[in-house]
Amino acid sequence: MGDVDAAGILYFPAAYRWQEELFTGWLKDTGHAISEMLEGDAACPCVASAATYPAPISVDDELWLSLHPTRIGTTSFGIAATARRIDDGTPVLHVGSWHVWSTFAGTGRSRSLTSAPLPEWLRNALESTPTIDPPGPVLPAAAISGGRP
Predict the structure, then answer these.
(1) Residue 144 and residue 138: Cα distance in Å, rounded?
(2) Residue 109, SS3 per DSSP
(3) Per residue in 138-147, pLDDT tens?
(4) What global pTM score does this model have?
């Protein structure tokens, strides 16, 4: 109920939170929680994102969510979360994002990010997960983690 609006359909920003929960959960499952990355002066900030909603998501819909890589570059990678209705398999959501592996330099307010090559653990984890094709023209749609209902 907390993710729908007064019309009884998905409030659009909820999809981004769902993707973030899948992504941070996947990172933790690889042994690299976000908190540990930040303590180690590294991160993978999102530099672009887009969502498409091919069918409405209503208050009583049960969904199967999954996360997959879409593209793997030298210093960046794309991921996408997808959602399908459990009862009929209808695709209802694609959320894509592009991330750049970065390291921190400086301290306090002068702290800055600089792109860096993907670490081997991240590249291996991304490459060991099947990719999916982009859902639309803006960003690839993909997902990582075997899916979470």
Answers:
(1) 19
(2) helix
(3) 333 333 333 3
(4) 0.79
CA distance 148 to 1: 19
**Cα–Cα distance for residue pair 72/59, rounded to 1 Å:** 35
Q: Residue 43 has which token pair? A: 């991160």
| Residue labelled with tokens 């209808």 | 90
Q: How many CB atoms lie within 10 A of CB 19?
A: 26
- Domain boundaries along the sequence of the chain: 14-127
Radius of gyration of the chain (CA): 16
What is the topology classification, in CATH, of domain 14-127?
Thiol Ester Dehydrase; Chain A (3.10.129)
Q: In terms of Cα–Cα distance, which of 78, 86, 90 is closest to 141?
A: 78
